């Protein structure tokens, strides 16, 4: 967990992250991320805004210490601290939250923070507490499959700084803004949006063999795109928005399009 605290915490986040922190009400959370100046995604995370002086970044994949060091270079005279909190532990359950609903953050009686990460086709609760919960390997498998089916990409090291928000279809998660002020990569994101230049997006594929990030997705020997992440017999890949109606393969193994599910936007 990465924690931003201080008088300028929200102002700093507004200037550095790709979603509109100012428009986010206290006590709520949103998907957001960090971009390179060329508009490529460095990290994707859930941003929790308790108030303008306390924000948490829940990182699924990025190294919090590395991201903290990167952000620290832009603090200058801003009044805030950026720190990694190793004492906070996130754990998920495939059940409806007791208190949290939608993007609203809730605090449980035991002091844990509760988030609603479910959708219409299935409830999920994420709890952030000072003590780790019990590991459930089967629940983790189902949790990751749910993320993939709903178009939440997981970015391993090889996929960092490879894709724009539009290529990852992060509009489906309401994870970036084209109307707020400047932030790193904003010019590329806004230009792509307003000029209608997005030609590639995220696609869900079922696969006949295990796929790995970076594997090519091809048809008749012609590469159409690449795998971003995979889980079990499915993968998320960046492909042309106008996908030809032809057989696909991933690294030589048969693949077929599957619908992306909605419901994770916040």
Short description:
The chain is α+β, with helices and mostly antiparallel strands and 266 residues long. It contains 4 helices and 15 strands. The protein starts with a strand and ends in an 8-residue tail after the last strand.
Describe the structure.
The chain has 266 residues and is of the alpha+beta class. Helices cover 15% and strands 33% of the residues. It contains four helices and 15 strands. The protein has a six-stranded antiparallel β-barrel with strand order 10-13-12-11-14-15. Strands 2-3-4-1-5 form a five-stranded antiparallel sheet, covered by helices on one side. A four-stranded antiparallel sheet has the order 6-9-8-7. The radius of gyration is 19 Å and the shape is globular.
The tally of helices reads: 4
What distance separates the N and C termini? Answer: 19 Å
Count of folded domains:
2
| Structural shape | globular
* Cα-atom radius of gyration: 19 Å
Mean pLDDT over all positions: 95
Number of strands: 15
Reading off the top of the CATH hierarchy, the class of the largest domain is best stated as Alpha Beta
Helix and strand content put the structural class at alpha+beta
Largest beta sheet, briefly?
6 strands, antiparallel, barrel
Question: Are there runs of 5+ residues with pLDDT below 50, and where?
Answer: none
Which percent range describes the beta-strand content?
Answer: 25-35%
Q: What topology, given as strand order, has the largest sheet?
A: 10-13-12-11-14-15
Secondary-structure element string: EHEEEHEEEEEHHEEEEEE
Give the CATH architecture of the largest domain.
2-Layer Sandwich
Give the proportion of residues in helices: 10-25%
CATH H-level superfamily title of the largest domain: Aminomethyltransferase beta-barrel domains
Fill in the CATH topology of the largest domain.
Answer: Alpha-Beta Plaits
């Amino acid at each position: 967990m990465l924690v931003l605290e201080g008088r300028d915490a929200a102002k700093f986040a507004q200037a550095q992250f790709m979603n509109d922190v100012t428009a986010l009400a206290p006590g709520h959370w949103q998907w957001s991320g960090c971009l390179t100046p060329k508009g490529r995604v460095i990290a994707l995370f859930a941003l929790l805004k308790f108030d303008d002086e306390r924000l948490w970044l829940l990182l699924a994949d990025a190294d919090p210490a590395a991201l903290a060091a990167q952000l620290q270079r832009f603090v200058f005279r801003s009044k805030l601290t950026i720190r990694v909190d190793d004492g906070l532990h996130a754990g998920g359950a495939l059940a409806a939250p007791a208190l949290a609903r939608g993007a609203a953050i809730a605090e449980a009686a035991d002091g844990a923070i509760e988030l609603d990460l479910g959708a219409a086709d299935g409830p999920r609760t994420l709890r952030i507490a000072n003590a780790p919960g019990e590991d459930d390997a089967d629940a983790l498998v189902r949790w990751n499959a749910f993320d993939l089916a709903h178009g939440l990409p997981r970015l391993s090291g090889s996929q960092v700084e490879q894709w724009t928000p539009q290529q990852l279809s992060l509009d489906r998660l309401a994870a970036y803004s084209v109307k707020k002020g400047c932030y790193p990569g904003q010019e590329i994101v806004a230009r792509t949006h307003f000029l209608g230049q997005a030609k590639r997006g995220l696609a869900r594929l079922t696969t006949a063999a295990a796929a790995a990030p970076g594997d090519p997705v091809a048809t008749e020997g012609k590469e159409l795109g690449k795998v971003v992440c995979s889980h079990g017999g499915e993968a998320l890949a960046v492909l042309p928005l106008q996908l030809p109606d032809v057989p696909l393969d991933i690294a030589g193994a048969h693949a077929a399009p599957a619908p992306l599910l909605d419901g994770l936007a916040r």
